[in-house]
Write a structure and sequence with these properties.
Elements lengths: L2 H5 L7 E5 L3 H11 L5 E5 L2 H10 L6 E5 L7 H8 L10 E5 L4 H10 L3 E4 L4 H24 L12 E6 L2 H12 L5 H20 L4 H9 L3 H9 L9 E8 L2 E7 L25 H8 L3 E5 L4 E7 L3 H6 L2 H8 L1
Parallel strand pairs: 1-2, 1-3, 3-4, 4-5
Antiparallel strand pairs: 6-7, 7-8, 8-10, 9-10
Helix pairs in contact: 3-4, 7-8, 8-11
Length: 325
């Protein structure tokens, strides 16, 4: 998803919740982030954080959460967030001095996808908040798009689709997600896999190059440039859909040389310190019943529970009105 699509779904001032029992740390983070167009809220305990999150009318877009706090600590806050549907998809950046692989893995298991190891510099904090906010806006955009149902997917038993761009990846993910029991989660995962196929597969931007391009604020510019190159003009990502009992399967194939997918199927501690590189792991963890890469890595197969016909019709106001007439 490009910046315009994200900005189109972003509130004027994204809301960031800062949680730390050290007021000095809160002041430092606030001083760094006040130059950004954010609305900042500070709390000094995990208990306060949960109270604010439950009672906020507008909600929050990103949480920067200290791990080691007196009373309710960061991991306990995460456990509570995961029990609330409205809160569990807020991206959390865990700020901590506990930076060992074991401690970071504990954060991963708790649902933390972004990490800041203290002491951190201002640039790193801003970069992580921007990355977390981009993830949040992707999720918000998908939920809003799914509020306008596209019921024609219910009739598909098999289908083949071809896309070229990130925008087309997003549109197709929304469409295909409509046929699944959890359309928002499946659409999120499909979008991650399709964008990976376009960006890394067909356009050849690897992890290290994307890291550099993002640091130089040139990533979207480079995507647009590579789309115009002669060798990429005819490249597409092919998606095959097949309906099986109680499920839909998707096979996504790009025209790239493949890659070592084993490095990206799980959330590795060292990658949590980067602003990208977790999309495949997130898709596997939360979007699909099954997911596996095939061959040289330019094919990925996944399966998700399908939405029943009764459920599809019950979501359609015109159908409900007709049956009740």
């Amino acid at each position: 998803m490009n910046r315009d699509m994200i900005q189109g779904n972003m509130t004027t001032n994204p809301r960031i919740l800062l949680v730390d029992d050290d007021s000095i740390n809160l002041d430092v983070m606030s001083a760094v982030l006040q130059e950004e167009p954010y609305h900042l809220t500070q709390v000094t305990s995990g208990t306060q954080a949960l109270e604010v999150l439950r009672n906020s009318a507008r909600g929050f877009d990103v949480i920067v959460l200290d791990r080691m706090m007196t009373g309710t600590n960061g991991l306990e806050v995460m456990a509570e967030l995961k029990t609330h549907e409205a809160l569990q998809w807020i991206p959390v950046i865990m700020a901590t001095a506990a930076g060992s692989p074991q401690e970071i893995c504990e954060g991963i298991e708790a649902g933390v996808f972004f990490y800041l190891v203290k002491p951190f510099d201002a640039h790193t904090l801003v970069r992580m908040v921007r990355a977390a906010l981009a993830e949040r806006m992707k999720w918000v955009a998908i939920q809003r798009s799914l509020s306008a149902p596209l019921h024609s997917v219910q009739f598909l038993q098999q289908g083949q689709f071809h896309i070229r761009t990130m925008e087309e990846a997003y549109a197709l993910a929304i469409f295909l997600g409509q046929g699944c029991q959890e359309p928002d989660k499946v659409a999120f995962g499909l979008n991650e896999l399709l964008c990976n196929a376009v960006e890394h597969g067909n356009l050849g931007i690897d992890f290290e190059e994307k890291t550099r391009l993002q640091a130089e604020n040139r990533w979207e510019e480079e995507l647009a440039h590579r789309m115009t190159l002669q060798e990429n003009l005819l490249k597409t990502v092919r998606v095959q859909l097949e309906r099986i009992p109680e499920a839909l399967t998707f096979l996504i194939v790009d025209e790239g040389p493949g890659f070592d997918w084993t490095q990206y199927e799980g959330l590795h501690p060292e990658r949590l310190l980067e602003s990208h590189g977790r999309g495949i792991a997130m898709a596997k963890a939360m979007s699909f019943q099954k997911m596996k890469f095939l061959g040289k890595g330019n094919q990925v197969w996944c399966q998700a529970s399908s939405k029943s016909a009764d459920r599809i019709h019950s979501d359609n106001p015109a159908y409900v009105a007709h049956t009740q007439a």
